[in-house]
Amino acid sequence: MTIGLLTAELQIEEADSLKDKRQVLKSLLAHLRSEFNISATEVGDHDIWRRATIGVAVVATDNAFAHQVLDKVIDHIESNPRVDLGHSEIEML
């Protein structure tokens, strides 16, 4: 069994309040969960309006599949016009 972890730093330029930020994140995270069957949540930068750090986890039978799913998650985040992906890191356990 393999656990794949993705940590991604996001910029949310359109957020002018924490409420705006939460709305964008809630939508993004819900879509990621339903599309990829992963676990995802905000793990950092909670009080900064235009920045967020999210954590994504996937459990798989092998490293290759977990890495493939997390790569697709990154591609999906990059295609979202409401957020800009900054630094991201994938780790396998």
Please describe what this structure looks like.
It is a single chain. This protein has 93 residues and is of the alpha+beta class. The chain has one domain (2-88): 2-Layer Sandwich (Alpha-Beta Plaits), CATH 3.30.70.1120. Helices cover 39% and strands 38% of the residues. The protein is built from two helices and four strands. A four-stranded antiparallel β-sheet has the order 2-3-1-4, covered by helices on one side. A hairpin with a 6-residue loop joins strand 2 and strand 3.
Short description:
The chain has 93 residues and is α+β, with helices and mostly antiparallel strands. The protein has helices spanning 18-36, 63-79; strands at 2-11, 39-44, 51-60, 84-92.
